[in-house]
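Go through the following before class.
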Amino acid sequence: SQEQRCREFAEYKGHSVEKVFRDEGVSGGIVDRPAIKEMLGWLQKHRAKEPTVNIDDVSRIARGVEAHWKLRAAIGSVGAKLESPSIEFGDDSDSQLIENMLASVSQHHRQKNGEQVVNRMKARLLNGYFPFWVPTGYRYEKVEGHSGKMIVRDEPNAPLIQEALEGFATGRFKTQADVKRFLEPHPIFARDRNGDIHPQRIKNLLMNKIYTGYYEYKPWDVPLTKGKHEALISWETFLSIQKRIEDNTDVRTKVTSTEDDFPLKGFVSCGCCGKALTAYYAKGRNKRYPYYECFNKACDQYRKSIRKDV
C-alpha cells in the first residue's frame, strides 16, 4: 500500500519510478539499514539526473529525530530531493518545525510500541509462558486451553537432552566434554566452522533452568517462575548438575580420562540397553584400572564393569 501511494504520487508529479527500496522487518530507528545504504549508493551513481526520493510518510524514512535528520542530510549530500504525499519538505523554519514534530511523534510511537511489547512479554513470563528463543529440546506450538503459542517437548530431541542432563548429574558423563561427545552425533546444535559444538553451548545447556519447568529473567526483574511447559528434569537433578559444575567434576576424571586412554569413548555402547558406555579408571591398591561401564539405571547391566582390553 505504501509503494502504491508513492507510485501514484510520482505519477501526479510527472516522475517515473526508477527503483523501489524496501527495508521490511528492520527497525526504523537504525540509520544504517541495508536498503537505505543501497539507495544512497544508487542516488550517488545517478546524481547527475537530480533524482527525487519518494516516501509514504516521515515515519517510513526513520522513526527517530536524530536518525531522520541524518538520513535527510545523507540524501541531500548525494544531490537528491525528498518528497512525500503526506508532507511538503522545506528549508524554512516553519517547515522544519513541522518536520521535527512529525519525526518526534514517530519516535514516540516507536518507543511506545517497544514498551508495550516488553510489557506484554513480561506479563507472559509472569503467567508461566516463555516468550523468547526456543531452547534445544523444545519447540513452539499452539496448545488448546493456552493463550498464544507455548513451548512443548520437541521429539525426538527432548529425550536426548534429558539423557544428557541426567547423565551428567548422575556421573555417567564425567565431564562436560563427555556430554559434548554424546551429543555430537546428533544434528541438533549449531556447529562452528570445524563442524564442532562449541563448549559454551554445552555449559549453557547444563545451566539452563528452563529444563526444570522453571525460568527467571533478571533484566526485567522476573523472579524464578513456574512455567506452563513440561519439565525434562527435576529441580534436584538440576542442583546436582550445578554442584558438579562448581566442583569441576571429580578428581578421578581430571587425572585419567584422555582420548588416547579410551579411543572407543563415545563409540562403544551397552550390549543390553544400547546406551553409550562411560569410560573411567578405577583405583586399585597399587594402580589404576581402565573400565567401560553402563550407567543407565533402567538397564539390567547397570554398573556392570567391562575391562578396557575386553
